[in-house]
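Hi support team,

I've been running sequence recovery on a batch of backbones for a student project. Most finish fine, but this one hangs at about 90% for roughly twenty minutes before it completes. I'm not sure whether the input is malformed or the queue is just slow. I've pasted the structure tokens below so you can try to reproduce it. Let me know if you need the job ID as well.

Thanks,
M.K.
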């Protein structure tokens, strides 16, 4: 991430407003731009490319986040791993397995501004420099709501300007936060947060003599969590309780960060459950 740099300073709001130029829009009205707008657009592209390259070089994101628009990463990788886990689990029938899929609503354009800045700091960006620059790009924005009865001006509190290429990177960083949340202890609130290399309740995938624990997969705004527990280690009832606890982790994250969830795309699939076992109702609030 770019280091703190005092040479990149932001204009004060008074100067910013004085330098605005009203540009006519094809559909009518005007679009107030500043003389620094062209510089911002010109510099933002190379900055995003540099950040994406550094993110990949430093391995900031765990390897189970198959972030898009980067060489060698794609949805195909996630699909192959997904199929392998299910096929082996069904063939061996040694684990209770649950697949928990969550869909964050409007993950690209509805994240609150303070959450976006927190994600940049989580990824290692400094308070000055790039984080400060992006913060200035997101504040003092307004939305004009025109109805038959009134015209209202509302403060722009979340999201990125339409067409901003940084939305994919922000979505990847939120996926990292979600996967980190899934690494928390689902049973005890005071438990530890496991590392990405040794997540709890993961499915043990063996390749030759190499063990690869698979717990979660993420591809931009699509995320899923595998919950695997040996049949010798717990009963079905205990397993269902663990699954519900992971639902609670998602619920807490949604409520605290004010992230909507698309209930039509949120699902739980259970594998290797005996046919005579009644399936309970799982719940999760958004």
């Amino acid at each position: 991430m770019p280091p703190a740099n005092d040479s990149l300073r932001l204009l004060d709001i008074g100067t910013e407003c004085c330098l605005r130029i009203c540009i006519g829009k094809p559909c009518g009205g005007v679009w107030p731009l500043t003389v620094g707008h062209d510089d911002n657009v010109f510099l933002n592209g190379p900055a995003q490319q540099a950040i994406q390259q550094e993110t990949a070089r430093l391995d900031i994101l765990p390897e189970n986040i198959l972030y898009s628009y980067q060489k060698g990463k794609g949805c195909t990788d996630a699909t192959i791993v997904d199929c392998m886990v299910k096929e082996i689990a069904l063939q061996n029938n040694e684990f209770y397995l649950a697949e928990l899929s969550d869909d964050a609503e409007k993950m690209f354009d509805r994240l609150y501004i303070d959450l976006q800045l927190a994600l940049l700091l989580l990824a290692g960006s400094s308070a000055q420099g790039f984080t400060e620059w992006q913060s200035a790009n997101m504040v003092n924005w307004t939305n004009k709501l025109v109805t038959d009865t009134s015209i209202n001006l509302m403060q722009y509190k979340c999201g990125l300007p339409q067409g901003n290429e940084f939305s994919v990177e922000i979505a990847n960083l939120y996926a990292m936060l979600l996967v980190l949340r899934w690494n928390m202890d689902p049973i005890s609130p005071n438990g530890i947060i496991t590392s990405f290399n040794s997540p709890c309740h993961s499915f043990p995938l063996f390749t030759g003599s190499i063990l690869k624990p698979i717990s979660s997969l993420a591809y931009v705004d699509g995320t899923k969590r595998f919950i695997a527990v040996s049949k010798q280690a717990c009963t079905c009832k205990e397993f269902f309780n663990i699954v519900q606890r992971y639902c609670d982790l998602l619920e807490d994250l949604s409520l605290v960060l004010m992230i909507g969830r698309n209930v039509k795309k949120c699902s739980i699939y259970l594998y290797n459950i005996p046919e005579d076992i009644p399936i309970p109702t799982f719940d999760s609030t958004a």
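--
Follow-up from support: It reproduced on our side and the slowdown came from queue contention, not your input. The first strand starts at residue 20 and ends at 24. No action needed from you.
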